[in-house]
Amino acid sequence: MTEDHTEETRNQEVEVHLTVKLPHEPGKIDFPVSSYTTIGEIFETLSNLPVTQQNSNFGLALDNEVLGDALPLSEFVDLAADKPSLTLVLKQLAYNEKLAREHISKVREIASLQLPAYFSPMNDASGVDAGASKLFELKFAEAKLEEKNENEEAEEPESPPHVTLTEEEKARVVAGVQSARDPIRLSDFSGSIPFTASPALKSLNLSAWSPVSVSNKAKGDLLYLSSQTIEGETFHITSHVSGFFVNNSSNTKFDRSPKQVSTTNGKQKFLKDHSLLALLEQLSPLFLQTRVKNATGYSSIPVESFAVPSNGFLSNPWLVQKPSKPQPDLGRSQSNFLQGGMDGADLQRDWNEEYQSTRELPKTTFQERIVRERLLNRAGFDFATSAVRGAAAVVRGEIEAINPAEDPSQYIYLRNGIFYSLCVDAGQYVESGGDLAARAAANKDLAGIRCLNRLDLPEVYHLCTVIVDFCGRRVICQTPVPGIFNENLSSENDGVDESKPFVVYGYDDDQKVLRNDEAFGKKLKPVADAFHLKPHHAWTRGGESSAEVATSAEIKGMKGNDGRSYVIELYRTTPLDISFIENHYNPESETSYPHREVTLRHEAVEEWWRRQIGYAVKTETERLEAEGSKAQEGEEAEKPNIVIDQTQFTFNPDVFSLNTPKEAPEEIKADEAKVREISKFVSEVLIPEFVKELENDEAVSPIDGEHLTTLLHKAGINVRYLGQVAEHVTKRMADLQSKQLERKLEIAEHNKKVDEEEKEKAKKAAEEENSEKETSDKESSETPKSEEATSEPSTESTAVDYIAHLASLQTLRMLLIQEMIARSAKFILREATLSLPFVFSPYVVAHFANCLLGRKLNPNPEISVDEELRWAYPEADVSFSSWSSESVLKQIESIVFKKYRFQLPAEWSELHIRPIPLLREISKKFGIQWLSRDYAFTPEAAKSLLVPEGSKTNKKSKKNAQPFEEKSTAHNVTFTVEDVVSLNPVVKDSVFRSTVVEEIWEAGRVSLSSGKREEGLALLNEAIIIYEQVYGSIHQDVAKAYSLLAQTYSDLGMPNEAVAFSRRSLRITERTSGIDSFETILGLLNTGYFEQRANSLINAFFVYKAAVDYWSFVYGEDHPSVINTVVNLGSMLQQAELHKESLALFTQALNLSQYVNGSDSVISALIRFQRAQLLTLTNNIAEAVKETKKSYLIYREAVGEDDKVTKETKNWADQFEKYLKHTKLQEKRQREIEAAELKKARQEAAALQKEKANGKKSKSPTVNSNPAIANQSVDDIMKFIEGKAPSKSKKKRGGKK
């Protein structure tokens, strides 16, 4: 075989049968792997498999030689063989102290004494019950789907299949419908952990005899441990270079010699093992039994419900149960030693070098890109978790500043290779807004870093950055530029030492100097091109000197002493929003916008650029086509290439900055005009388009504030435009209402004309009533004589559209105002806690919540700060305790106008404050976790929650009412300080996002669209695997990928697979985004749809119901989409022939629609008509006639008499009325027959009595309006009315005969 052929074979992925020989039972293990798999990946797999997890310190040997972790299997396997195979030997290795500590940590994890080591740094970011779940409460039933040929085309069924529910399932549905009528209770919406493992040991920790003395280290001792088993026995264990054994030490006596221990057969034996896990199994029978019990418990629930994320944060629920009491465990306090050693050196990491060296890894092959992106993502997330811990310590005052002589607001901190600074103005933003401008710039800087992450440019390096908002402070966490603390600041040396970092590009020395190193400028050229920046001249402060730069002069280029070129302060990668500044920023005005540091979003600039390019291409194409048409006939014209000069669509990011020349050249004026155009593009184009898109009844209206801001950001609209968007929505609503009124007048006039025509037709029909061709003449009389006579009003937009649009816009406006109020509330909390010690924050939060949300219970609440805290911090400003409801409302009103340029409407505190949704929004934004209980926001609610002494209540109500009775009633307030369970950091990171997985995903979609089904599905499933490799199994991006995969399988007619993937996506989303997040609600809707398509009606019902419950919780029952979902639930129960329950849901939907859309809206008419059909199925024909007539009258007024829907509804109303009359006539005849029979019977009885004989007692016949059509469907009833016999029931196709 040639060398080239061998190399080619190695580059192909082949399945290899791997055998690993073990030094313990079962002796060996076999499994298939890819030839791309490395030795290190096999090591990780063996470390996690139950049969080999006891090993942590081992190597994989081939021919008695331990192999390196980075080597792929293709190096050792004959891939050209028919069935490639490989046999490796697991070789146990000698321990050192570091390896022993890692092994002990792993055993503690397996014994359920601690979380995995990689998860422990997240403790400061994870609050109480992080990653809580409620999905496991749904209890999914097995799908009832008929088998289908895989090659069969996916087709929508003409009618829903008949569904039969068991009695148990029917009982569940009935209970679910009844609970839907119950009022919303906060205590019902807190999640929990689906399964908590029991510790397999009482304790496992370092004993009091550690650390090991120097003399014993020479004998091989590494650590001394103490472990107490569940049986209650305590063992002292020696960690030795050769393994672990029980020694003769006690709590008061040290003896390192091996100890004989009684075994299960009663014999004394020296116990020693290479694995501590195996040793403990020999010491404690319950150790293994408990682990088996835990494994059984975990196996009963999906892995996504309990798996710990490796590369992502879990969601912190804002509503939590009372925290459980901690269990004593000395090992918890020793975790830092176990992970970092005696001096913590193992925890110290050079984050910048680690991240930048990972970026420099090769990325020429597909496999190299996957490895590189996985390591980048992991390094970025590890940095984020460490940064959050440090930032929390900074806020709590646990880290010393490295510049203690400065003002406390200017303190900077350095810990574990991370640079921390408070986000305040250090003099750079004095003229543009101070600290608030600095906070805004920090956000924009992070956005710029995220963009650079996506670009992944080779020669330009950026710093790992995380922003942490915690109790009013914003902490910027960054890796320092290498050597920045050794910078030579001496002005005596004119020469520049290239080994020292300094600014070589952009502003320096408080913008008095502008540097433009030519070599560095060339490296920034790709950055400028990506952001569409124009090379331009920039001026220093005061406009004294200028230099040409490729990017904004605010962006600094620095040379690290590691030789890398770093770019920092990326907040000016988009232009200033000059239109907003000129209209709303005036520092001399009290109502001015707070700062001038307002820039456009990257999405807005990108959209503007895309449209400019599109217009230029179209113009050039039309020009070339015009020129081509002039060419002589018969000449073969060469196809021209369309070339667009993209430089004409670049912009100068520094125009309108405060550093301007004294006399602006013409070029600057042209640059200003272009930036002004981009600025107006947001307010004049993007905002109207955003509102128009959301008013469409096919679009899902935003669910909550987070959903709203996500949609705004995707559209390129900054949050500061919330007020302008609300004003545009208000104007649009007024326009639609005006058009709706005009439409109604037009329809009324048209109906009048139609009525007159109908009278003429009726008169003519009466005259021809006796003719021979009565039927023909009647049909002729109903035929329109002219278009003018029967023409309908304009159908460009109907009343249906107006009503649907108005409801969507009303919802949008409500959310916009609520979001402005919530953000203003966060601002007040931030300012109040900014200068206070951390321990005062719960008092601020509780008092503010009482003033804003509990004002109806007590408009003047009081707060009493703990005297011990007042003594500990006598200088603390507790002026917040003087807040009242009135003062808080005034603050919010003022802030909303300043920050969002919106004047809250009159009575806004009554109309736009929904206590539960607003409490949720504020809590999620500020990082508050509240105790899950039913809070009283009004005096009426307070009375209902009180439990009279001696009264009998069920356990649930007593449990919910007791906390309020004990706490809130005593203080006469809604919230107490004890209700604030935790305050957690709100984190914004810049973790690297994979691009290779997106490319594979897109390739799979392209294959599917081109008809290559198997290839497309294979690529999509491969992409899912890589998603999990890069991000870990529990991550938001993985959840989104599973959701898209579920939709793909559903589109391909594979509902079972769609359901499986959708459930998996939903479980991950619930834990990473929150049980009541908008992503989870949308995921519930999708899963419900897939369950319904899979014929799992019981599952679909409860999934949809959960979506409705959460929707009502986070917004309110009056969300338009809630109505649609309730109608869908009613239709599902109708399909299952649960007509009573279905009718209850349609009634609920009708009530909601009348509240949201109006009682005279066509949507309400449609629901009313559907309800009428259900009434016929329950034999309530009289009520069905009333409902159908009401529906008809609404349609007549809304869309006109000639509208198809109006005619159909009128026809149904007429037929129902005929049927009702027919039924009444039958009943009358039946009564007459019964009367005659009764009379006859009495006569016969009298005659018999005369003959002195006993007569038979006649039974009254059962009254039945018409047995032939009883219990028939609506369609059968209509056929009977029209003179057709009802159809006989047929056996289902393919069913039992």
Folded structure, characterized:
Residues 1287-1297 have a biased composition (Basic residues). The structure is a single chain. With 1297 residues, this protein is an alpha+beta fold. The strands form seven sheets. Strands 2-1-5-3-4 form a five-stranded mixed sheet, with no helix packed on it. The longest helix is centred in the last third of the chain and has 47 residues, at 1204-1250. The chain is globular and about 125 Å long. Mean pLDDT is 84; it is low at 1-10, 145-154, 488-496, 774-799, 948-970, 1253-1271 and 1285-1297.
Any descriptors?
48% helix; cytoplasm; alpha+beta; 1297 residues
Helices and strands in order, then pairings?
Layout lengths: L2 H8 L4 E7 L6 E7 L4 H10 L9 E5 L2 E2 L18 E8 L4 H14 L56 H13 L23 E4 L7 H4 L3 E8 L5 E7 L2 E4 L13 E3 L5 E3 L1 E2 L2 H8 L1 H15 L19 E2 L9 H4 L1 H6 L10 H9 L6 H30 L16 E4 L2 E5 L12 H21 L9 E6 L2 E6 L24 E6 L4 E4 L1 H13 L5 E4 L6 E4 L6 E4 L5 E4 L9 H7 L17 H28 L36 H30 L9 H10 L7 H46 L6 H9 L4 H4 L8 H36 L6 H12 L14 H6 L12 H16 L7 H4 L3 H12 L1 E4 L7 H7 L9 H17 L8 E4 L2 E4 L6 H14 L3 H19 L4 H16 L3 H19 L4 H16 L3 H18 L5 H16 L3 H18 L5 H16 L3 H19 L4 H47 L23 H8 L16
Helix pairs in contact: 6-7, 10-11, 11-30, 16-18, 18-21, 18-38, 21-24, 21-26, 22-24, 29-30, 30-31, 31-32, 31-33, 32-33, 33-34, 34-35, 35-36, 36-37, 37-38, 38-39
